[in-house]
Specification:
mainly beta, 11 strands, 1 helix, five-stranded antiparallel β-sheet, two-stranded antiparallel sheet
């Protein structure tokens, strides 16, 4: 009984320590203040607007994508899941999420002195010989060595994604909060053109079908070449053209399939 009571006491102390550590990670245990001194030099007096940007720790975000299928329409919604524990609630702010990683730092490299010297040109030409193995092919030849795998280099470019709402609220509680970034609706449309030649001689035809042409960034149209007869593509005006040789007493079907992608706040399409 004494040993059991001792173990219970140790477990309770451990739980108390873990609870203190958990509470210290959920809420800041100290408040930080900063003072900004700004020197403005103007040639003429007047009122001006000044925008100040600064970095704060304990804030991050991750993208969340949700696709919903209703009939032949797919709605793709992108949310930003934001965590922040900066000690200051973000109430009704204009939020933008960036893929930049300022925590990596951007210190310039240290520059070393590079001494250049001049020497006279040699009157003789020095050459050197080296042995080089010649690989053979066919039977008896050694298999070529596998090339080295390249290093990981995504060559990514930093992108800034503004929130869809002009005012977003993210409290400083260290919990995830979703913020809508964008929502798109994808519609797939298929057009079939059926041709018939009831005559006794072959006919040469030129068939044109037009797809919508968008002038807005929130409306995009893309022809699916794999599902389109002849893998045809539209011209700048949206016309898809097929030259057709239709034999006598024959039929042929041309298929055009395209995908219309529009932002959910676009109507009339």
């Amino acid at each position: 009984m004494v040993e059991a009571g001792f173990e219970v006491t140790e477990i309770e102390r451990e739980l108390e320590r873990l609870g203190q550590r958990l509470s210290s990670t959920e809420t800041p245990n100290a408040s930080e203040t900063a003072r900004l001194e700004l020197l403005v030099i103007a040639t003429t007096p007047g009122r001006l607007a000044v925008t100040i940007e600064y970095l704060v720790p304990s804030a991050c975000w991750r993208p969340y994508h949700t696709a919903t299928l209703r009939g032949d329409r797919v709605t793709v919604r992108t949310d930003g899941c934001v965590w922040q524990n900066t000690g200051e609630d973000w109430a009704q702010v204009k939020l933008s999420l960036s893929t930049r990683r300022p925590s990596l730092g951007s210190n310039p490299p240290e520059l070393d002195s590079d001494v250049l010297s001049v020497r006279p040109r040699s009157e003789t030409v020095e050459v050197s010989a080296r042995n080089q193995a010649v690989k053979t092919t066919g039977l008896g030849g050694e298999p070529p060595a596998a090339p080295e795998l390249p290093g990981i280099d995504d060559a990514g470019e930093a992108v800034t994604l503004p929130a869809a709402s002009e005012a977003s609220t993210v409290p400083s509680d260290g919990r995830p909060h979703r913020v809508l970034l964008s929502s798109w609706e994808e519609i797939t449309r298929t057009v079939k053109v059926r041709l018939s030649n009831l005559g006794t001689t072959a006919k040469a035809l030129r068939v044109e079908e037009r797809v919508p042409v968008s002038e807005l960034d929130k409306v995009k149209v893309k022809v699916e070449r794999r599902e389109t007869t002849g893998r045809r593509e539209p011209d700048a005006d949206g016309f898809v053209t097929w030259p057709v040789e239709l034999a006598a007493a024959s039929q042929q079907t041309l298929t055009l399939r395209y995908e219309l992608k529009k932002h959910t706040d676009v109507v009339g399409v």
